[in-house]
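ok so heres the complex, two chains, lmk if somethin looks off
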Amino acid sequence: MAVYKTNEFRKGLKVQIDGEPYLMFEMNFVKPGKGNAFYKCKLRNLMRGTVLDRTYKGGDSLEAADVEEVGVQYLYRQGDTFVFMENKTYEQYELSSEQVDDNWKYLKDGISCSMVLYNGNPITLTPPNHVELLVEYCEPGAKGDTATNVTKPVKVETGAEFICPAFIDMGNVIRIDTRSGDYIERVSVK
Amino acid sequence: MSFRPTASVENLELRSKKLAQLRSHFAEAGFVEVETPLISHDTVVGRHLHPVGVAIDGADLWLQTSPEFAMKRLVASGMNTIYQITRAVRAGENGKLHNSEFTILEWYKVGQSYEAAREFLSELAVSILGIAPAEQITYQNLFKQFIDLDPINDSELFITQRAGELGLHTPDAWESLDRDSKLDFLLADAIQPQLQSHAIIVYNYPASQAALAASNGETAERFELFIHGLEIANGYHELLDAQELRDRNRHINNQRVLDGNERLPEESRLLDAMDSGLPDCSGVALGVDRLVMIAAGAESIHDVIAFPLDRA
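and the predicted structre for the whole thing:
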């Protein structure tokens, strides 16, 4: 297993601590003149998002984490398992609903996402920033009402519900921002 | 990849101005500007100092970590009031406040006492930066005042526990670090951040951190200037005893091996010079890049160096 010595520490390094992958997102080198060097690091757990403050002294080392980001396509869901296929190798990967978290709302058939692999196993999934989803059910919209400040819930093809302007109708395709879950615009009307 | 400097043109112009001011300050004080080699057969033996080796025409030499050895050889050869502004190179020192290759101002004055050397350093900072004279405090009182710890007399257990009480993120295996490394960490992590509004000269370092300063066994005649919490300069009332330096070199090399680092050559032309007689003198090394940082109000050394290592 590759190892990073303290003099290789820098922002962006992916390392392994207690068997879990971390991203070093901040690194401050402090060294009193003739004294020992210290490396003050902030590390984000790539599986859980938690942050660690750690200090290392000159000569310490951290194991490199085998972390890789790949492009995948969503294939199907089987119970609590979501199945994806890597675009280049056609390798299939499974994520639990816990790992997929709220992103299930955007997983329509065939959608392209990016996936982080740790030691070859998927750990996180990131959908595109914007996705287009077909509205499958909602209360009928008032004809001619184009105001965006009157809202209602709509149910889309993935089974998820989003808050949209009242003029949205069944059969419309809407664009959603996956980072916030907010409605952006109507893409098409059937 | 950008070809442009990381420093602004304004800061590079300020840097030029500060260099000119430094040169005229030393000229007015009667110093002779000297030049010594960047590449040397000898290197300073420091526990936490990592020199860069260079192979030239079949010989293994070193890039200087400071011009100290060469300048003391000039002092031992009759030049009694000298300074230079040059480059020094230290491996593994890169960050917001460090660049492996940096500009160093170093000076020596024969017959200058320990007190007078500190006074001269304070006056230099006043003249170049327009700040108030630095307050002076012993290393012992600095620790007592800021973190309520006696670095000379408190037990190792007390020092170990004090970091926890202060809520610091200590390095792994903190308990097993040696006493000086613990003090280094406390200075860097708990004291320096409290010195933001200070210009302060810390003196009488523990004898175990004497480096090349004269020592009485308990404390060394070594001092450092901090401005706004930033370490700017390091000075010694110089060690003259060659045998003492040989003993320190051997001891430091043994520590280096335990740390997993290479041994450095213990004999040097500096020792030859000391054998022949180095006159009583004081010497100071000052980080020019950091001095310019203070003058510019810069947060990072990259703001005052045109092309730091990443872009060199």
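quick notes: The mean pLDDT of chain B is 96. thats all i got rn
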